[in-house]
Amino acid sequence: MSKKELIKKVDAYVTKKLEKLGFKKKKGLFYLPIDENTTGVIALPRATRYSKEAFSIAPVIGVINHQLEKLVYDLTGKKQSGLTKSESLGYLMPAQSYREWEFNKSIPISMVANNMIKSIKKYGIPWMKKLSNLQFLTEEMEKENAYYYTLPIIWLLLGKREKALNILNKALEKAKSKNSQLQEEYEQFITNLLEKFS
Q1: DSSP string, the chain
Q2: Order of strands across the sheet with 38-43?
Q3: pLDDT at residue 51, rounded to an integer
Q4: Alpha carbon distance, N-terminus to C-terminus of the chain
Q5: CB burial class (10 A; 0-12, 13-18, 19+) of residue 191?
Q6: pTM of the full structure
Q7: Cα 18 from Cα 30, distance rounded (Å)
Q8: What pLDDT is recorded for position 52?
Q9: Are 18 and 42 in contact (CB under 8 A)?
Q10: Could you read off the pLDDT tens digit of each residue along the chain, which spans 198 residues?
């Protein structure tokens, strides 16, 4: 079996398993409705650099919060790329480290794939569901000291204006140190945001 054939068989097997869990595949990603504002997303990036006969998958688990993404777009005029929050599956597991699942022709596809799906079901999906809670989402975002657009919006939605202002001030100082265009864009975002939540 060639690597190309192996990839095709693994993709078909994993797709079938994830669809049984309620996911729908679209453009290479798997989507699961969590609630009216939140959609869970799984990406399965492949690493093929190690071998001519094997490849690895390191699942990425994430969510799109449609309310937040719409607010960011309304306030900036720019659609944000990617997910509202995401993490490599391995970091959601007890070992909290990067994890790949390797597929090769000497090991049954079902053995490796089922182990990966089991981990997604046990650790990935519950995390997705927790992220539908704005308070939990902020806690996860704050670990990375980023999300300068979405995080202040969440704090304002939660009624924590001082926390939002603190993030906005820090982000503005960072923007000033980079370039004037970024500074102007972020200043406009702050103005629009505070007007909306005045």
Answers
A1: --HHHHHHHHHHHHHHHHHHTT-EEETTEEEEE-SSSEEEEEE--EE-SS-SSEEEE--EEEEEEHHHHHHHHHHHS-PPPS-SEEEEGGGGSTT-S---EEEETTS-HHHHHHHHHHHIIIIIHHHHHHTTSHHHHHHHHHTTT--TTHHHHHHHHTT-HHHHHHHHHHHHHHHHTT-HHHHHHHHHHHHHHHHHT-
A2: 24-26, 29-33, 38-43, 60-65, 85-88
A3: 73
A4: 63
A5: exposed
A6: 0.91
A7: 8
A8: 79
A9: yes
A10: 788 899 999 999 999 999 999 999 999 999 999 999 999 999 999 987 667 789 999 999 999 999 999 999 999 988 877 899 999 999 999 999 999 999 999 999 999 999 999 999 999 999 999 999 999 999 999 988 778 999 999 999 999 999 999 999 999 998 888 888 889 999 999 999 999 998
Q: Which of 12, 2, 19 is nearest to 55 (CA)?
A: 2
| φ/ψ (deg, to 5) at 66 | -65, -35
Distance CA 147, CA 158 (A): 16
The phi and psi torsions of 28 (rounded to 5 degrees) equal 85, -5
Which residue has 């937040």 as its token pair?
68
∠ CA(16), CA(45), CA(102), 5° rounding? 75
Length of the chain, in residues: 198
Q: What tokens does 6 get?
A: 């192996």
Torsion over CA: 115, 121, 126, 131 (sign): positive
